[in-house]
Design goal:
Elements lengths: L6 E4 L5 H12 L10 H9 L3 E8 L2 E10 L3 E9 L8 H15 L4 E7 L3 H9 L3 E10 L3 E9 L1 H12 L1
Parallel strand pairs: 4-5
Antiparallel strand pairs: 1-2, 2-3, 3-4, 5-7, 6-7
The structure holds coenzyme A.
């Protein structure tokens, strides 16, 4: 697969509609209703503790990630790469950018939930060092189960600290 030139940037208001549509088509597909509608994405964009990151390919959105930063936990709320751009390392680059920000903020772990039958996403997160933490029955609309995965960052944080002191 040829390398795709992309840049990671914070989302702006011009991205709201496309992010919401991507959520409906790539993440919420098959669920009743549309929970990440444009107004909700706009709220996420304004929230101080939330980062909305976009992978931009020549001015078009290839992928996006919405992450909430707490005191000890960063939580990936919504994340997708358009099918045409998948398997080119864009998803991995976005997560690594977010992990770097999480480490800088002194947060010690990262969590994410996905449908239990989303084996592609489960393989993706496993490849990135996330481990299965919990099976949650009825998580999506009281019908579909979810898997919660977690990546601990303490070791990475410690390694980073010891590099600083050398
Ligand atoms: C999950 C998703 C974000 C991955 O994005 P991506 O840009 O294609 O991922 P990358 O190219 O960075 O993949 C990195 C590694 O993850 C693993 N991986 C990614 N997609 C995979 C798949 N479909 N099946 C198996 N492993 C996969 C591979 O190890 C891959 O490395 P490789 O291509 O060298 O084998 C993307 O498939 C997607 O948007 N899916 C639909 C929405 C979704 O499920 N979102 C996540 C819900 S929380």
């Amino acid at each position: 697969m040829p390398a795709t030139p992309y840049r990671l940037r914070p989302a702006d208001t011009g991205d709201i509609q496309e992010i919401a549509v991507m959520s409906r088509c790539l993440i919420e597909v098959g669920l009743r209703g549309w929970t990440w509608h444009p107004a909700r994405v706009a709220r996420a964009l304004r929230a101080r503790e939330t980062c909305v990151l976009v992978a931009d390919v020549r001015g078009r959105i290839a992928g996006f990630a919405i992450t909430e930063f707490g005191d000890t936990r960063a939580h990936l709320s919504l994340f997708a790469v358009k099918p045409v751009y998948q398997r080119r390392g864009i998803g991995m680059a976005m997560i690594e950018w977010l992990v770097e920000s999480t480490l800088t903020a002194g947060i010690d772990h990262f969590t994410v939930e996905m449908r239990a039958n989303n084996f592609a996403a489960r393989s993706f997160y496993e490849a990135l060092g996330f481990r299965q933490q919990q099976y949650i029955a009825g998580y999506y609309q009281n019908v579909e189960p979810a898997i919660r995965m977690r990546r601990d960052l303490q070791q990475q944080a410690a390694a980073r600290e010891s590099n600083k002191t050398v």
